[in-house]
Every structure is written in structure tokens, then in C-alpha cells.
Amino acid sequence: MLFKTSLAAALVVLAPLAVSALTEMERQAGFHARNYSWPPEFKPNTEGWRNLMMDRLEQVKEIDDLDRRYEGYMQTMSSAAVAPNFTQWGFGMTRAPADLVKDLRDAIQDGLANGETRLEGKIEVSKRKDGFCKFICRYERGF
To answer: What distance in Å separates the CA atoms of residue 69 and residue 73, rounded to the nearest whole number?
Structure first.
């Protein structure tokens, strides 16, 4: 009897908390009331950066799992609008040292030739049309 009484008391206390979440209509009303827009302004707001981020957002939109999709949006928007970008074009390129490029190219070619690859796994953002991305195993370096 004590258990039933305690359970009933807990339900009376906790019931209002269970219905306090916003409905989708309330969430949208708040979104518009705060003058938010989608997609937000990217920083820097250049054509190249905007195109790159829109491509990433399109990839994220395809993720079926809601938790992973949310995480994808959070990570992408962190890059797109929050994290500073330190070049005037939004991204920059430079030539890597020739010896580094050679080492990387050799490691990739050797890994592919020797079958030392593994699939990245079911991470939907990096899914390719021809299958999942492959990684070259570099066990001597711990990966």
C-alpha cells in the first residue's frame, strides 16, 4: 500500500514536468519570433564557404537516425557559423612539402596494393555512392 501511495504522489508531482516540452508549432513560432533564418549566415559569408557548408548540410539531412542527424547539424553549424575561419576566402590552400606528399602517396598506394584497408563503418555523413569510405591501416602508427 505504501508503494502505491508513493507512486501516486510521485506521478502527481512529476506529471506537469512530462508535458512541459514545446510542440513543433510552438518551436516554430519561437524561431520566427526571434527572427531566426535557415540557413543562417555563414562566416565568412563567401560563395565557396557557403557552397561547402550547404553541401555538408545536405549530407546531414540524409541521416536517418535523429540523434546522429542532430549531432551532424551541431558539428556542421559549428564550422559554418560559429568557429572562426582565418583566411579571407573562407578556406585556403597551400602546397605541402614534396617529401610529405611522397610519403603520404606511397602509404596510400602501398596500403591499397597490400589490402591493408578497413571500412570506416556506418557513419552516414561519409557514405559514398559506391560504398563506405576506406581507411589505410597504419598499424605502426596506431591506426
So the answer is: 6
Higher pLDDT, 115 or 140: 115
Confidence of residue 102 (pLDDT cuts 50, 70, 90): very high
- DSSP for 83-114, written as a single string: S---STTSS---PPPHHHHHHHHHHHHHHHHT
CA-wise closest residue to 22 among 12, 13, 33, 11: 33
- Report d(CA 55, CA 125) in Å as an integer: 11
Beta carbons within 8 Å of 33's beta carbon, 6+ residues apart: none
Summarised one tens digit per residue, pLDDT across range 56-96 is 999 988 888 888 888 888 888 888 887 766 666 555 677 88
**Nearest by Cα to 87 from 135, 44, 136:** 44
Nearest CA to 120 out of 130, 108, 128, 132 is that of 132
> Per the confidence metrics, is the pTM higher than 0.70?
no
Ordered DSSP codes for 23-64: PHHHHHHHHHHTT--SS---SS--HHHHHHHHHHHHHHHT--
Cis peptide, bond prior to residue 16, ω within 30 of zero: no
